[in-house]
Write a structure and sequence with these properties.
- This is Myosin-2.
- Belongs to the TRAFAC class myosin-kinesin ATPase superfamily. Myosin family. Plant myosin class VIII subfamily.
- Keywords: Actin-binding, ATP-binding, Calmodulin-binding, Coiled coil, Motor protein, Myosin, Nucleotide-binding, Repeat.
- By secondary structure, this protein is an alpha+beta fold.
- About 60% of the residues lie in helices and about 10% in strands.
- The strands form 8 sheets. A 7-stranded mixed β-sheet has the order 8-9-23-10-19-13-14, with helices on both faces.
- The longest helix has about 130 residues.
Length: about 1200
């Protein structure tokens, strides 16, 4: 067998290319005996990485000691000129290299089966130095060459300012060790070159893939992301990873139009649709399950991104309604599993893996949802400013009245579980509308109304449990439940009696030998039992809803072929106070980060090293030490937590002390005061408070509560109890009560098992990563916090992904796959049909530069863009082949068609001729038969017509002859009558007087035709008379109707006249009463004046000696002469009299006018007076005028009364003043 050293030695004529060396190796291998083991393809000296010790042979002079290559050949290989040049390029990209962690392999790991094999195969590469060493120039790192070039060309640079920000500027001049920079705002800075970083040219501003950037330093990446974010371009590629920055507002990047564009490959901008489309196409092409892993911190938009990906996949796999069911599951699970936190208004408080199943033709045929670690504690308590799960508030706000009455529901601020955090609403969120959307979603997934009522009743029961209150009854702090609305409502909704619920929450059975002792609970224990029951009901209710969804979505899964999994799990969390939930969440994120590193860093680099290609390791943040801190046995965090949870008397402080005792030597752990500790996560340090760790990890639920649930009348509580008992019996083979009381699996152990299953599931899929980024901590749109974003980019390894993708070989195929896929592109067949030979021939044929690929032991590694070129060539070849096939098949089909056409035409001509002849014979026979039939038919018709005409002629003749006979008979009769009358006349003449004869001689004699005419006139007159009588009868009826109407109108008019008279009489009475009151007031006033001044009164009477008579007018005049105030009162009295007289006169005038108008209208109505006016309209107008005048008259009458009273009061006052003056005198 030819040794590897001979193959790797350079040829005397000059160094050969790697492809030529590989081809020679293949030829020599083919010459070996068939039973000999195959030799590995040797690497050329110019680019060869030394094979590992697991290979069959090594070059002579090469040894491996502790993983380090020694020997002359190794020195020769490492010093190859090509390696130096390539390493110089790589050194300018990567910076300082960091080796993989050499920590011990975890005893438990989801990858343990794979890692043991990989460890055996790649152990020798762990410490294997890179063949490509960094080039140094004048003792400076290789990156200095790039900066020297930038300084020499005076390009754009990033300047580090004193406030730790980067500013963009242009190099103006260089003087010594300082550089003068002109900033964008016109400011000039003088800095040292160490504070500068090269900036990308203008043409690369806002590129959609960070790989395209010339310089991948921090300010360049941030500037590129901010430039795109300011234009609402929230998606950016970073090699194989999609960066999604949360816009915190609505952006126009979604909808059916965009789905169509990405589906038809009309748009290649970075997008979630593009990632989902890539996963879908790879699933169909390769037949491998895919996964879309969405990660990021809380508030980065992971949930919305997952919904967008599901929307696109549902549109691709149109399955007549199944896609709407899959999408509606988001509405249901968000209502039950999402809540408002201090960072996010719609934070997922559980993990969710959605498997969308497809058939072989890409049709969506089902889905399955798995959930992880629902945050049960949020049901009973949470931080101030946060909310519980959305469904509680949606049910209280949006439930219809009938449902509220059935569930005894009230407003959200009535329930203790909801109002404790002082946050009941979310801005711009309508809980009532969301509830209707939830009900619609439940209907779409075909959940029955009965099951929906069960769901809402359990949610309401949890709320009412929180309103159960306790009171202390003795000195030992024992309690009893205060009978209130909460107890009654919770018992009814659960389907149990109130005493049963009271006993379950306030007592506990303790088994002492064969006896059961009932122990009363303290206040704290009772409240914990109540909260534990509420959390348990809600957690199992959530699982039940997920089972219902899976049952609905799994109807067509029997035809499934492959699936695409979308992972939406809680992001990394770090609050002021972090508890058990954050501990579990961040542990899960550590696992996901390791999966990310494993696929994008470790596995890729180890695959490069294991396949023997030239590669320099890239530095990245490895979190193996942090995972070892969590999972290592027996002194890992999880093991210690489970161990401490098993001790009944253990406390959170004792757990914290145990952690400090066993973890004090670990660099990733640091104990704090008051039961707190710090862990150095991949995303930074997080301080955890151990308060509640043990209680939440145990998740206790005593047997009394389980028995209570099992005895309920409602179906769901019994189902929950059965599930809990089944879980306990799986752990124990004891009796039923012992199984209930047995220690169940801890929360962290169960969560760890779920997490390992998740990791194993993801390992069996092709991953696609989406990194969601939170732009700022204030949840405001268009705000870009550089430090926060840079921290997230570093933590999630995006920058390292860009570097390794830019320098690495993202596309890799085995020789067999490459040959099968692209062997058809060869123009000439080669002698050797070896897959490697075919692959190399394809690469040579297309003149792919050696820098663009590397040939490994088992695979071909290609840089970005090479597969696209090969695919384009293949598509062109296939298109050409299709055109050739199309033309050939078209020509062949046309030839066959013409031959068939000729034969068919000949056959058709004979057949059609025969058919025509037969048809003609039939037509002739039918024609003859028709003629015969027509002959007989026409004869029959003619005979029938002749007979009928003959009958009609005979009938007409008979009628005419009868008429003529009657006329002749009539004439004969008239002639006979005339003769008889003539004879009578002659006889009469003989007997008549001469006077009569004289008259006859004068022509006065009767004639028979005149009599006939008179009889006709009489008959016409009688007919006319009958017509007139009929017309008179009709007119009589109309007259009766008019008389009835007139009587009705007359009655109405009389009633209106009476009403007017009554109103006028009332007004007249009012006027008379006013006159009387005025007269009485005047009389009283005058009498008072007379009594007040008797001595000054002088009468104007001629009989001055008479004392019994007086003249009032004279008295008044005298009084006026002696009293000036009296003189003023007299005109006032006259004015009052005049005003009243004026009103009386107006009343009489108006009354006369209205009576005249009404009489005239009555006369017109009765027809006594002829007029063209409409009496009804005029009567209505008269009524309106009367009402208007009446209103005005009443107001003036009232005003006159008021004025009269005022004047009377003034006179009374003046009289009093006058009397006072007189008295004083």
């Amino acid at each position: 067998m030819l040794s590897a050293a001979a193959v790797m030695a350079p040829a005397p004529a000059g160094p050969k290319s790697s492809l030529e060396v590989l081809l020679e190796t293949i030829k020599k291998r083919d010459e070996q005996p068939k039973d000999a083991p195959p030799a590995l393809p040797a690497r050329p000296t110019c680019r060869g990485r030394l094979p590992s010790s697991r290979r069959p042979s090594l070059p002579s002079g090469v040894k491996l000691e502790n993983g380090v290559v020694k020997g002359a050949v190794a020195e020769k290989v490492i010093s190859g000129q090509d390696a130096k040049e390539e390493n110089l390029v790589k050194a300018r990209i990567f910076g300082t290299k960091r080796k993989f962690s050499n920590g011990e392999m975890l005893e438990e790991s989801p990858y343990v089966d794979n890692l043991h094999d990989e460890r055996k195969e790649t152990t020798t590469f762990k410490e294997l130095p890179s063949v490509s060493s960094r080039a140094n120039k004048n003792g400076k790192p290789g990156v200095t060459a790039t900066m020297d070039y930038v300084l020499q060309k005076k390009l754009r640079v990033w300047c580090s300012s004193p406030d730790a920000t980067w500013r963009l500027g242009q190099i103006q001049s260089i003087s010594g060790d300082y550089v003068e920079i002109l900033l964008v705002n016109g400011e000039v800075l003088t800095l040292s070159p160490e504070r500068l970083l090269p900036a990308n040219p203008d043409i690369l501003d806002g590129v959609d893939n960070l790989i395209h950037m010339s310089y991948l330093n921090e300010p360049s990446v941030l500037y590129n992301l901010q430039s795109r974010y300011s234009r609402d371009l929230i998606y950016t590629k970073a090699g194989p990873v999609l960066i999604a920055i949360n816009p915190l507002k609505e952006v126009s990047l979604y909808g059916n139009d965009f789905i169509t564009q990405y589906r038809k490959k009309l748009n290649d901008d970075p997008h979630v649709y593009a990632v989902a489309d890539l996963a879908f196409n790879e699933m169909l092409r390769d037949g491998i399950n895919q996964s879309i892993i969405i990660s990021g911190e809380s508030g980065a938009g992971k949930t919305e991104t997952a919904k967008i990906a599901m929307q696109y996949l549902a549109a691709l796999g149109d399955a007549s309604g199944m896609e709407s069911e899959v999408l509606q599951t988001n509405v249901i699970l968000e209502a039950l599993g999402n809540a408002k936190t201090s960072r996010n208004d719609n934070s997922s408080r559980f993990g969710k893996l959605t498997e969308i199943h497809f058939s072989e033709n890409g049709k969506l045929c089902g889905a399955k949802i798995q959930t992880f670690l629902l945050e049960k504690s949020r049901v009973v308590q949470r931080a101030t400013g946060e909310r519980s799960y959305h469904i509680f508030y949606q049910l209280c706000s949006g439930a219809p009245p009938l449902l509220k009455k059935k569930m005894f529901l009230k407003e959200a601020n009535y329930y203790n579980y909801l109002k404790q955090s002082a946050c009941l609403r979310i801005d711009s969120v309508d809980d009532a509308k969301r509830f209707s959307m939830l009900v619609d979603a439940l209907d779409i997934i075909q959940m029955s109304k009965e099951d929906q009522m069960k769901l809402f009743s359990m949610v309401a029961a949890v709320l009412w449990l929180g309103n159960i209150s306790f009171s202390v009854i003795d000195n030992e702090n024992h309690v009893e439940i205060v009978s209130n609305e909460g107890l009654t409502a919770a018992a009814k909704l659960l389907g149990c009696s109130a005493p049963q619920l009271v006993n379950a929450l306030t007592t506990r059975k303790i088994q002492a030998g064969k006896d059961n002792i009932i122990q009363k609970l303290t206040l704290t224990q009772a409240m914990d039992a109540r909260d534990a029951l509420a959390k348990c009901i809600y957690a199992y209710l959530f699982d039940w809803v997920v089972d219902q969804i899976n049952h609905s979505l799994g109807t067509g899964r029997q035809q499934t072929w492959r699936s695409i999994s979308i992972l939406d799990i809680y992001g990394f969390e770090s609050f002021i106070k972090n508890g058990f939930e954050q501990f579990c969440i961040n542990y899960a994120n550590e696992r996901l980060q390791q999966h990310f590193n494993r696929h994008l860093f470790k596995l890729e680099q180890e695959e490069y090293l294991g396949d023997g290609i030239d590669w320099a390791n890239v530095e990245f943040v490895d979190n193996t030490d942090c995972l070892s801190l969590f999972e290592k046995k027996p002194l890992g965090l999880l093991s210690l937590l489970d161990e401490e949870s098993m001790f009944p008397k253990a406390t959170d402080i004792s757990f914290a002390n145990k952690l400090k005792q066993h973890m004090k030597g670990n660099s990733g752990f640091r104990g704090e005061h008051e039961g707190a500790f710090k862990i150095c996560h991949y995303a930074g340090e997080v301080t955890y408070d151990t308060t509640g760790f043990l209680e939440k990890n145990r998740d206790p639920l005593n047997s009394e509560l389980i028995q209570l649930l099992s005895s309920c009348k409602c179906e769901l509580p019994r189902h929950f109890a059965a599930v809990m008992i089944a879980e306990s019996q799986n752990k124990s083979t004891l009796s039923w009560y012992s199984a209930v009381d047995s220690q169940k699996q801890s929360v962290i152990t169960k969560f760890k098992a779920q997490l390992f299953m998740l990791m194993k599931h993801l390992e069996n899929t092709t991953p696609h990563f989406i990194r969601c980024i939170q732009p700022n901590s204030k949840q405001r749109p268009m705000m870009f916090e550089h430090d926060l974003i840079l921290h997230q980019l570093k933590c999630c390894g995006v920058l390292e992904v860009v570097r390794i993708s830019k320098a690495g070989y993202p596309t890799r195929m085995t020789h067999q796959q490459f040959a099968e896929r692209y062997g058809c592109l060869l123009l000439h067949s080669i002698a050797s049909q070896d897959p490697l030979s075919i692959s190399v021939s394809v690469l040579q044929q297309f003149n792919i530069h050696p820098e663009m690929y590397q040939v490994g032991y088992t695979k071909l590694f290609l840089r970005t863009g090479q597969v696209a070129a090969l695919e384009n060539a293949k598509n062109r070849m296939l298109y050409g082949a299709l055109r050739i096939q199309k033309n050939f098949r078209g020509f062949h089909s046309r030839q066959e068609y013409h031959g068939l056409t000729k034969g068919a035409m000949a056959l058709q001509s004979f057949i059609r001729g025969e058919k025509a002849r037969i048809s003609f014979d039939h037509l002739v026979k039918r024609w003859r038969a028709a003629i015969l039939i027509q002959k007989y038919t026409r004869r029959q018709l003619a005979a029938t017509m002749f007979i009928n005409q003959l009958k009609y002629v005979i009938l007409l003749q008979s009628v005419m002859r009868g008429c003529l006979a009657r006329k002749k008979y009539k004439c004969l009769m008239e002639e006979r009558d005339s003769k008889a009358s003539h004879r009578k006349v002659i006889h009469a003449r003989k007997n008549v007087s001469p006077a009569q004869m004289c008259h006859e001689m004068n022509g006065d004699y009767s004639r028979q035709p005149v009599i006939t005419e008179l009889q006709g006139r009489v008959s016409k007159a009688e007919a006319a008379l009958r017509d007139k009588e009929e017309e008179n009868a009709v007119l009589k009826q109309q007259l009766e109707q008019y008389e009835n109407k007139w009587s009705e109108y007359e009655a109405k008019m009389k009633s209106m006249e009476e009403a007017w008279k009554k109103q006028l009489s009332s007004l007249q009475l009012s006027l008379v009463a006013a006159k009387k009151s005025l007269t009485s007031n005047d009389v009283a006033t005058r009498a008072a004046r007379t009594d007040a001044a008797p001595m000054h009164v002088q009468y104007d009477s001629e009989d001055t000696l008479s004392t019994g008579t007086c003249t009032p007018e004279g008295t008044e005049l005298k009084y006026q002469n002696h009293n000036p105030e009296a003189r003023l009162a007299v005109p006032n009295s006259d004015r009052r009299v005049n005003a009243v007289n004026h009103l009386a006169k107006e009343f009489e005038d108006r009354r006369q006018v209205f009576e005249d108008d009404a009489g005239f209208l009555v006369a017109v109505k009765s027809g006594q007076v002829g007029s063209n006016m409409n009496p009804e309209d005029e009567f209505r107008r008269l009524k309106d005028r009367f009402a208007t005048w009446k209103k005005d008259y009443k107001s003036r009458l009232k005003e006159t009364k008021v004025n009269l009273q005022k004047v009377g009061n003034q006179e009374e006052k003046s009289r009093k003043r006058w009397w006072g003056k007189k008295s004083s005198k």
